[in-house]
Amino acid sequence: MSTGRVLAADAGAVDLGARAADVLATATVALVEDGPELGLWEAGPGEDTDEEVDEVFLVLSGSGEVTFEDGSRVSLRPGVLVRLRAGDRTIWRVTERLRKLYVATDDQGAGGGGDRVLAGDATALALTREFPSGQWVIGGWPTARVEELGRLGSARVGLWETTTGVVADIEQDECLLVLSGSGTVRFEDDGEAVDLHPGLLLRLRDGERAEWQVGTDLRVLSVAWSRS
C-alpha cells in the first residue's frame, strides 16, 4: 500500500493532464493536500499577462522570461529559483514549453521586499550554514549545509546538501525535490525504503524517524512548514 511519501518519481515527467485553452496552454497539478499550496505548472510556448500571488518557483525545464511593471526582467531556465509577490503585474514570454515546481500562498502578510531571483542556479548555489557533526552521524564523515532562501506564510523554502555517509534524523513536515546525488532513505516506523535520485519529489511528515544513506553528495530543494 502506498504511504504517499513519493509524490513524484520524476517531477519533470508527471502527466499534468489536459491543458487549458488559453494563450499559454497552461496545466497545473496540486501535490500536497495537508500543507502549503505546492504543485507543478506547465505552459507555453506563447505570451500572456498575469497578476501574481505570493509564490516561489523553480524552473525544471524550458525557457523564457518574465517582465515586471518596473521593466525588470527575469530569464527563465532550468535551475533558476524565482520569488513573485502578490499584486506583481507580469508579462510571461515562454519560448520553450516551461515546467516549474511552485509553492504559493494567499497569506496577506507573506509579501515584502527582496530579490526576485533567489538562486540563478539552485544546483550550484554555495550554501553557507554548516551543521556540526554530532549524534546524528551513524557512518562516515558527512557534512551538511543549508540555506534558507525565502518564506511564504508558514512555509520555508531553501536548499540543503550533505556529503556521503549515513545519518539519522527526526523529520519535520517537508517536501524535498532531489536536485543531484543519490542514496536511500529508510523510515523506522514501517521500514519503507525510498531510493533518492534527481527529480524525485518526497513528502516527509513531522516526527518520522529516518536513516539517510547518502551514496553520492546529495542536494535538495526543501519546502518545510509548521502546522497551525
UniProtKB/TrEMBL annotation:
Pfam family, one: Cupin_3
(S)-ureidoglycine aminohydrolase cupin domain ranges (all copies): 38-102, 150-215
Gene3D superfamilies documented for this protein: Jelly Rolls (2.60.120.10)
Transmembrane intervals: none
Name by which UniProt lists this protein: DUF861 domain-containing protein
